[in-house]
Amino acid sequence: MIRFEKVGEILAQVRAVTDFVIIGDTILDLALNRKGTESDVDVFPTSISAFAEEDRIRELAYSKGWDFGRTPIDTPRVIATIDAQQLQIDFYDNIQDFFVPQKVLEDSVEVKLGKYSFRAVSLEDYVLLKANAFRDEDEDELKTIFYMIGEGRISLDRDKIAERSNLFEENADSIVQRLRSVGILRSS
Length: 188
Fold this sequence. Notes:
With 188 residues, the chain is an alpha+beta fold. The chain has eight helices and nine strands.
């Protein structure tokens, strides 16, 4: 596990190139009050385009001695070494089937990673992003979240989720159906 103090230090260096909102599994780690992350950190740049301005991200990676690569949707990925562990930071953009509504980014909340503050999507919006993508691993994650709700480990505002599904425009109905199929939303 990479402790959030170290994650915060790395993300503070990334912020020198672009502001961003944390959109990935780190949201669930924070909701569960974990001390760090076992996975990568997914970010959505808000002051540059990860796709169109990837040279800035590549230059940051090389200047810090980090590795540079690509995500499955061909956006930049950097891999920073921290105390013999590797932290992967994936930069996403609204390309191909990947979509984060502007309102989700605007409504992000402040989170603390170590001594640094960052913007992150709410847990409800994270659930909506997972339901929109709905790959096999996303479906499994949503089922896990449903069980965590049942165990009382996390709580979700289901009304907020249902309401904000409309932010995903033509995918809204599919998202609601997917969340019903895993038990997060109730059938009406």
